[in-house]
Amino acid sequence: MHAYLLVGQENANFEESISNLAKKLHAKTMEFPLSKIDDTRSLNDLIRLSFSEPTLIVCSDIHEAGDAALNAFLKNLEEPQENIYFVLTAPSVRKVLPTIVSRCGIIRVPGTKHQVINGDAEEFIKMTTGEKLAYVDKIKDREKAVEFTGDLINLLHGVLHLQKTGLPGTAKNLEVIGKTLRRLKANGNVSLDLTSMVVSLV
What is the pTM of this model? Predict the structure, then answer.
């Protein structure tokens, strides 16, 4: 394997994972920002040179790169160069082009300690029902709704993991949010599904 996709949320310890990967490959690391087609062309010029020692090229936040840059970058993954490895980072697999994902080994990077919380999930759980309704009313985009409900599920799984007995209603709320996530992915109405979720939370 010569390309790796590191997946983790904001609190993920990418630096440690990249360092461990570099040690495993006996490679030096080189940061290379990749967002526009010109970046890919510069990268292509660089890797045409012959590398005398293993080198791990780090392209962070690959999900933010434009499609043109990524499509041009694909060739590097399809035709590996000697002594060159790539490591890409992103918050989730679904935010990365499938053609990129299929050519990488996926490494899921946990957050620091038990910080399984991302986005505003933790604050949301503490809100009153009225505040929750006002919050979800602002979410109109399906992808954001899916990401948010996924964050809530991660948070509550963490609560169950950290609390020996869990918190009252946690398991029930996980069931409610899980159903909401499935409806959203099945093209349910974003506003109705999120409102129904809030009303059903314990």
Answer: 0.55
